[in-house]
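Invent a record, attention on tokens:
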Amino acid sequence: MPRIPDEFCDSIIFLYPTEEAAQAGENHTEGGCGFLVKISHTNNSNLHHFYLVSCFHVLNKCSFARINNNEKYKVIPIAAQDLVRHTDLDDVAVVPIDITENHKVKALTLEKFLTEEFITQNNIGCGDDVCLIGRFSLHSGKEQNLPSIRFGHISIMPREPVKHPSGLDMEAFVVEMRSRNGYSGSLAIVYALPGTPRPGNTSIVINNEFPFMKILGIDFGHFDSYSCVLNKEKQKLPQ
């Protein structure tokens, strides 16, 4: 597995339903996470607007953001009236957030996001590597947020809508990923390892640089699959 640049891990912000849970850094399965994005001011590129990006179902329930700072962490309340949901009701939302020099967090720029043009130019598709950066609810950190990274790959490209747990059809990548509950809102990165060829391009550049590393999206849900446990007579055991 590759060494993921720190800027992606440093963009992660943990989210909790109560201030008490956020202060304690509890292993709260109803929590989640998001990541920080900055957009330059129209008239002054040295000024930026900061936004927290996550799933709507996370931000709609979690009103407190826990952000690392130079000493420990800071808990910031999220104003529900500032929440902006995707116009198609997809499970993604943003909320403006105040960031100061004391916060130990890095904001990602719009240039980091994957675009349809980039997908075409680099022939991104099934089998490309993906990592998920977010909150491991069983060990998320007491003194500071400790983002966890898990790895997988693109399984299905977004050519047809995916059924969201809410019943809505959404445009989404299907990713085969080592994940679990509590990762909602995690940052998904698609990347190519250094020195690996792309389909349709037989040339291999031998260096230590990643051909690309782009924001694929956020984790919004799983396809749950359950199997019955059988005894040696192949009878279902009681739950």
The first helix runs from residue 6 to 9. The longest strand covers residues 32-40. The two ends are 37 Å apart (CA to CA). The helical segments are 6-9, 19-24, 56-59, 116-121.
